[in-house]
Design goal:
mainly beta; binds thymidine-5'-diphosphate
Length: 141
């Protein structure tokens, strides 16, 4: 099932291959993941009450899977906000460009794996929310 959250953000089930030994998910570029993967990072060992994110990206696309534990991802495109609970290794969240994201309530066991279409580039970040709103609303059709 695919659930649209914002025009360029969606939550989707990913195919699970299971047999008597357990389960496995494979994510391939340009198949499940709608871009070529340039970078993978993961967040783990989170402290209680330590929200993360609080930025948007000018261009970066990301594809996130909470492989263990849970968190709430807050998405905001400058017009609409959506909170989504990530708590399943068989679901993925696509986040397009120009979306403010905040990660809240990460459980201590949370492991959030993120696939990205570009290498780390600080110049792609928008870390000031008011600046984000200006750019997001200015860019709006
Ligand atoms: P940060 O952007 O603050 O993480 P979050 O968005 O989850 O709050 O990143 C934490 C640190 O890690 C910061 O020093 C930048 C560095 N970093 C990299 O070097 N490469 C990466 O791909 C990412 C995502 C972060």
């Amino acid at each position: 099932m695919k659930q649209d959250l914002l025009p360029n953000c969606w939550l989707t089930d990913v195919p699970v291959k299971g047999d008597e030994r357990g389960r496995l998910v494979a994510l391939e570029a340009q198949h499940e993941v709608p871009f070529d993967i340039a970078r993978v990072y993961y967040i783990f060992d989170s402290e209680p009450n330590a929200p993360r994110g609080f930025h948007a990206h000018r261009n970066l696309q990301q594809y996130a899977v909470c492989v263990r534990g849970s968190l709430t991802m807050r998405l905001d495109n400058g017009r609409e906000k959506r909170d989504v609970l990530l708590n399943r290794p068989d679901q993925a969240l696509y986040i397009g460009s120009m979306v403010w994201r905040e990660m809240h309530d990460l459980t201590p066991d949370c492991v959030l794996m993120v696939l990205a279409d570009s290498l780390y580039d600080e110049a792609d970040y928008i870390r000031d929310y008011d600046r984000f709103l200006e750019l997001a609303r200015g860019a709006g059709a």
